[in-house]
Amino acid sequence: MRPKGKLKLTALILLLLVASVFVASCGGSRANVKKEEPAAQPVAVDVTTAAAIQRDLPRFFEATGSLAGDQQTDVAPQTAGKVVAVGVEIGTPVKRGQVLVRLDEAELKLRVEQAATQVEQAKAAVRQAEERIGLRPGQAFDPHRVAEVSAARVTLDLAEKNLRRAEKLIESGDVSRSFYDEQRARRDQLKEQFDVALAQARQNYAAVEVARTNVANAESQLALARKNLSYAVIPSPIDGFVSERTADLGEYVSPQQKVATIVRTNPLRIRIDIPEHAIPEVRVGQSVSITTSAWPDRNFAGRVARIAPNVSATSRTLTVEAEVENSSGALKPGQFATVRILQERAEPAVLIPARAVVTEAGVSRAFVIRDGRAEQRLVQTGQTEGDLIEVKSGVAADEQVATSNLEQLSDGIAVKQ
Predict the structure, then answer these.
(1) Burial of residue 326, with CB atoms counted within 10 A of its CB: 0-12 exposed, 13-18 middle, 19 or more buried
(2) Is the CATH number of domain 77-104+232-258 2.30.300.10?
(3) For FRET with 249, which of 17, 52, 223, 233 sits at 20 to 30 Å CA-CA?
């Protein structure tokens, strides 16, 4: 074949190949084209609703704190000794004066006996000292009544008389001067003896006073020994419950070591801090309500018992102490509690079920149902009242809010009730 014919044949083959590829691509395109279907309509979400209500809501301040016993005391012995009896355990109810622990009394009784003996010895010494000067029990001391002093007084008075007589006789010349001098010398000697007897009597009476002081000291030691003996019985100082017992049988305890802790649980106390702007709203005797996690369905009544005289300079709050009735013993010291201080006035508020509010990242929202669709509203919540919660903004009274399937709702979504 001539070259010119070969070229024509090659061109024809290429043309046929291009045509077949074009036909195949066109056919594939028609095969891949699908008929467009209409868009699916969103399914309406089933919800239950409740109407927002408006009513007067009692106002209160709410704060948290820990419950504490009305009184709590650590009991320690007032004398050292060995524990021979323990009368209580943790949780035991006790009355004031009830025996908690008893110590060994043997050594304490011996000290009482020794002190009593010393008292008797001191009293005997007083009697001897009084007899020495002729002083009867209960008689006032007069040194001139002492026998030695009285005898010296008589002798001295006689010498004084003889001296005065000699003075008269020497003037008349009936006696000599030497006789007069003898009488005066004797009078002076007897005067000196009288002074010595008087001083001795007073000294003997001083010994009586010392002996009486010794009696008083001995009696004080006896009273102390008897008191220490009474300390062998360690009683409860208050009514309450034993929250801790640290003394064990056979243990040696000292006044620096507590043997038990007693707490009075009725009433209980709780301290809370209220903001400065609320100070005019709080007064002693005002009602309070207490709730705890242990009793979520119960409210415990109390009252404001004490108000601090000053506001904290750092927190700008006022400390208030409330007392809570706890005759049932349901509340325990140390429990964490929420306190509401009720105010006298009530204010209108819009309330919706608490389950209608969803809070995420600190933002609260609710869904208002209107014309078959959900409207998302940002709400500001307030205090709770049972299963209702106050909404300060975002929802108006009588509007219907969704209370179920909130996780399926979004703004504008269709709903059915």
Answers:
(1) buried
(2) no
(3) 223
- Selected from 2.40.50.140, 3.10.100.10, 3.40.640.10, 2.40.30.170, the CATH number assigned to the domain covering 42-70+268-417 reads 2.40.30.170
Convert the pLDDT of each residue in 61-92 to its tens digit: 788 999 999 889 999 999 999 999 999 999 89
DSSP 256: T
Chain position carrying tokens 């969704």: 402
Tracing tokens 């919706």 back to the chain, one arrives at 352
Phi, psi of 355, deg, nearest 5: -70, -10
Q: What one-character DSSP code corresponds to residue 301? A: E
Report yes or no on whether pTM surpasses 0.70. Answer: no
* Alpha-carbon gap, residue 244 to 74, rounded angstroms: 9
Tens of pLDDT, residues 208-264? 888 889 999 999 999 999 999 999 999 999 999 999 999 999 999 999 999 999 999
Paired sense of beta strands 388-393 and 336-353, if any = antiparallel
Nearest to 359 by CA among 339, 380, 343: 380
> 21 to each of 10, 11, 15, 24, how far by Cα in Å?
17, 16, 10, 5
Distances (CA, A) of 314 to 204, 216, 280: 73, 58, 20
